[in-house]
Amino acid sequence: MRVLGIDPGLTRCGVGVVEGMPGRPGKLIGYTVVRSEPDEDISQRLLHLDRSLAELVAAYQPESVAVERVFSQHNARTVMGTAQASAVAILAGARAGLPVQTYTPSEVKAAVTGSGTADKAQVTAMVTKLLKLDAPPKPADAADAIAIAICHIWRGGTRARIQAAALAAARRSSR
Amino acid sequence: MRVLGIDPGLTRCGVGVVEGMPGRPGKLIGYTVVRSEPDEDISQRLLHLDRSLAELVAAYQPESVAVERVFSQHNARTVMGTAQASAVAILAGARAGLPVQTYTPSEVKAAVTGSGTADKAQVTAMVTKLLKLDAPPKPADAADAIAIAICHIWRGGTRARIQAAALAAARRSSR
């Protein structure tokens, strides 16, 4: 399963592509950060992000897209831009006909570090270790995006196993 | 000048198209509300809005798009969805190669009623009067979108006059 993870942001939007299966070490396919300048026009910033993400989805051909969910309790000054960037990120997957899943920051942290309150350094360290990278991915926005992709692979696997078990149980009871 | 105004929202997104010039009564070309269900998947909601707005821009062929700006001090429960819808609205104009302008709610209210603190009923009443409509446009989201388009026409005119005056002054001083 190849997943494109997105850590939405208007100034820096992290993108990480991971291939893997639940319970096995994943493989990092690529990562990047899409940037735009805060003094640029909002319509041009959103358009640049939209085009860049569409190109990345076309280039990496993921089977699904995972996006970090934004909460209003975040920094009020930047939260609106982050929410807008998240809409562009979700659209990038939806427009390509891919399933899009969102995860809370604590779900992502818990998936890769075992703790929902881990800091950025811990997330970067675990991403580096889990994917057996020679050096930590930089900047941190890219590491977060990779962590989101890993979270989706593992959680997706859990969900797939639960669905398979439910299906098997339903088959047994209908015999 | 034909303007497509958008009052962004995820559950109800108002769209109003007005043709006019600064200082003259405008003409209502059309209006609608794009809806999606709160229990639907966020990616499908954003995709529906994206496609609907792209179709409306293609159908009405506006020369510019005006979108109401979202603030984080709004209702915290709905503000994230409104911010996401605003990104889709801004993109609808940008992707069509149109200039996109955003206005604060008080700029819009002041433009049509003379008061930045007017309520929805006053905005609807003034939109009905200004455009000489037989009946007020419904629902209120549509009236707000029409008000945003009127605001853009008038403000655009003000800006155009200021630019023209500045240009004329520059020409005089360079003689």
UniProtKB/TrEMBL annotation, chains A, B:
Primary localization: cytoplasm
Binding site for Mg(2+) 1: 7, 141
Active site (catalytic residues): 7, 68, 141
Catalysis: reaction(s): Endonucleolytic cleavage at a junction such as a reciprocal single-stranded crossover between two homologous DNA duplexes (Holliday junction)
Co-factor note (free text): Binds 2 Mg(2+) ion per subunit.
EC number(s) on file: 3.1.21.10
Reported cofactor(s): Mg(2+)
Pfam family of the protein (one): RuvC
Residues bound to Mg(2+) 2: 68
Keywords: Cytoplasm, DNA damage, DNA recombination, DNA repair, DNA-binding, Endonuclease, Hydrolase, Magnesium, Metal-binding, Nuclease
InterPro entries recorded: RNaseH-like_sf (IPR012337), RNaseH_sf (IPR036397), X-over_junc_endoDNase_Mg_BS (IPR020563), X-over_junc_endoDNase_RuvC (IPR002176)
Organism domain of life: Bacteria
Cellular localisation: Cytoplasm
UniProt record similarity statement: Belongs to the RuvC family.
HAMAP family: RuvC (MF_00034)
Reported function: The RuvA-RuvB-RuvC complex processes Holliday junction (HJ) DNA during genetic recombination and DNA repair. Endonuclease that resolves HJ intermediates. Cleaves cruciform DNA by making single-stranded nicks across the HJ at symmetrical positions within the homologous arms, yielding a 5'-phosphate and a 3'-hydroxyl group; requires a central core of homology in the junction. The consensus cleavage sequence is 5'-(A/T)TT(C/G)-3'. Cleavage occurs on the 3'-side of the TT dinucleotide at the point of strand exchange.
Subunit-level organization: Homodimer which binds Holliday junction (HJ) DNA. The HJ becomes 2-fold symmetrical on binding to RuvC with unstacked arms; it has a different conformation from HJ DNA in complex with RuvA. In the full resolvosome a probable DNA-RuvA(4)-RuvB(12)-RuvC(2) complex forms which resolves the HJ.
Name by which UniProt lists this protein: Crossover junction endodeoxyribonuclease RuvC
Natural source organism: Actinoplanes sandaracinus
Lineage: Bacteria, Bacillati, Actinomycetota, Actinomycetes, Micromonosporales
